[in-house]
Amino acid sequence: MGHGTVATAQDGLKAWEVLKARPHGIDLILTEIELPSISGYALLTLIMEHEIRKNIPVIMMCKYDSVSLVYKCRMRGGADFLVTPIRINELKNLWQHVWRRQSVSHRLTVPKKIGFADIN
In the chain, which end has fewer C-beta atoms inside a 10 angstrom radius, N or C? Predict the structure, then answer.
């Protein structure tokens, strides 16, 4: 699997602006729950309410390992949840799983871009 393009944003509002500017070509969003300006929950809600972007898998991350946080994210449409800090192998395995699930359900071609909502 080759490397894609990574888009970054320093806060939730900037992440939403990046997503609005690029309506197609983002295959995965990785975001923290605790973000400046708007929360990761709010960002997830905006994504899930958008006709085009709601099909992009959103992986939520948080330093707290809580069943209620995971449940809240999943109920809002999050594809998965990671406890930070994350290991690179964990992220690679998750990406492969998400891509396979998407390719089966949408018959996607090899992904070209990976969108990350927040990277510190």
Answer: C
